[in-house]
Amino acid sequence: MGRARLAELHGVATSYDPAPGRTVQVPEDTVVAVLAALGVDASTPRSVREALDRYDGRQRDRLLPPCVVVRPGKAPRLSLPEGTALRVCPEDGAPHPRGRAAAGALRADGPLKKGGAHESGALDGALTDGVLTGGLLTGGVLAGGVLMDGVFVDGATADGLLTALAALPPGAHTLLAEAPDGRRASAPLIVAPDRMPLSPVRSHGFLVQLYSLLSTRSWGMGDLGDLADLAAWSGRALGAGFVQINPLHAAVPGTPAAPTDPSPYRPSSRRFPDPVHLRIEDVPEYAHLRGRARERADQLLEAAAALRDSVLREGALIDRDAVWALKREALELVRTVPLSPGRRAAYCDFLAERGQALEDHALWCALAETHGPEWRAWPDGLADPRSAGTVRARAEHLDRTDFHCWLAWLTDTQLAAAQRAAREAGMGIGLVHDLAVGVHPSGADAWALQDVFASGMSIGAPPDAFNSRGQDWGLPPWRPDALAATGYAPYRDLLSGLLRHAGALRIDHVMGLFRLWWVPEGREPTEGCYVRYDAEAMLGALALEAHRAGAVVIGEDLGTVEPGVREELERRGVLGTSVMWFERNYNGTGAARPLAPEEWRADCLATVTTHDLPSTAARLTGDHVELRHRLGLLSRPLAEERAADAVEVAEWLGVLGRLGLLPEGPGDEEAAVKAVHRFLLRTPAKMVGVWLPDAVGDRRPQNLPGTWDQYPNWRLPIADAEGRPMSLEELVASPRLRALMDEVALLAPRGPTPHSHSGAPGGS
After folding, report:
1. Where does the record locate the signal sequence feature (predicted)?
2. pTM of this prediction exceeds 0.85
3. Residues 6+ apart with CB under 8 A from 231
4. From CA 279, how far away is CA 258, in angstroms rounded?
């Protein structure tokens, strides 16, 4: 019982429910391993007792929790001794003008009788029975004070304190406390909006894997110039409101022995984009190359054209490493051109703004060039980003570190240009960036942020009806206790960086804001357990950063979802993800029927398919079953799979026919693709996404889960119905694409959505 209580106190589940009415106990050694990753020794009965005593002692002695989160209508959970004095240091170090009228602007006309403003910008005063008296409440900033007469009772906060805290401007402030016995404490205070921003208009747009979108100017894979062109064209010509792309996170660089992992969901860093996405010719200094540098740049352009043609005309796969080899050499040449004064000033501003995070990322990249990307094998103490050896390495690698900082800046400027092109084309949202669920254990983030990742653990999924062995994704999880101790700073910084040039953010496996399945290193996924996160804090930090960026938030909530999670996400303004084939009524008896359009939730991004699922043409024709059969992925005989698939497709075609959405009749694949999108547009979904390959009849999935080298995951260009790769210019001219998108634009014109909330998305 002691170990179970210790686990519960640290958010570690000792059982889980893979199906209704069935509970599975977590192995004891798994619980011990997970607690150890959280810094808690539970290996013996004695260590358990000592850990419980330490926990109880900390709870008894501390004044404030590691982090305090407040939002309108949600009180912070505090329990303080009577007579405790409180102060708040605003994030910007000065009183904020917001909220004065609502808070009553309690201020003395003359000198303060009690409390006052300090040089740091912190304020204090007296708080009696939850009402601020004799102190200062300026601009809605809480003037901390003396807590009397049971203001805090059983962890509940008096209305007066809640009102004052909620009147603070949204931000990451600092709460200070001093008890009558002299004890002092401080804690990060996150003041968050209650909901995420929502777009005031219903919108439609494309979903695309950027690498697959090659134009006649690409260097072998889609780039940020192609993204800007797609956004500008689809916004102006089709009335699209957004373009959703795959994660552009920096990848772990390849080596001769191990090519770069092409998956965008297993990155080195989520904090910085990968410069492989740069359009080299759009770097201003490129035009100023002269002499031999210009001659070599022209040769690289010819090599890039050959690489592009091999993909678009000769059936070659996208080769990320080959693309980067050409671009890296070209960028080394471009870097010899001095920056203009204005460009130099902009670069310096970027360095100052991104600070330590950028310096760490760039240093990791420089060290990986010398020692390889596996940082745990680096010599001279370099595995520790704060060691004396690493300090020396920073001085020794200044030039290469600056090179990688410069690459990050160039990529940031081109992302800004793509979002600007989208907004200038009339898009209400623009770019929708994608946040992967984790990072590669050998990458830059895992090196620089070791204190907030759980060592020896991996994120995955428990066994379920679809996968009896569970899943291990090989990504280290956040430590919830370490995040709280930092005021969720690493998480907030991550979100802030991703939202710099975005109108919306998609969060992969959004259920991970509530809990994640941890798998100890060396164990099977079946031997993992759930670890809980403070969802109020995680959602609060997300709401804060989304509010600052004016960005919509979309949660990928497919698959097994804990009861209550979707409801809470909806309350907080996080849009869900609804895929047509999965939207069924599972509450009735018998087979689950497809939901009627009017039964769909409104707060969602509605799509027919995703990057992990068959294309719509492959689904309608059964090609996806044949592909999985050829690769040995079927769990039952081919005839059974074919029959089950045919029944499902026939059921959906029947629904479409009864609704009058398939006037062309059965047997016409292109008409059926139009019909399923007509169906989506009948739903109340706030966002409707069209998988760009679907618009031209592409039958190949971009990723086939369960495969590694058996299938070219993440390496295919968009192709037509015959499998012929298509350039961006050919896509734009495709009659099939225009016919589909003309209907989408007609049925989903730009206009207000009912019951939309304030906070139009922005992002530069």
Report:
1. none
2. yes
3. 240, 243, 418, 419, 421, 422, 425, 427, 430, 431
4. 26
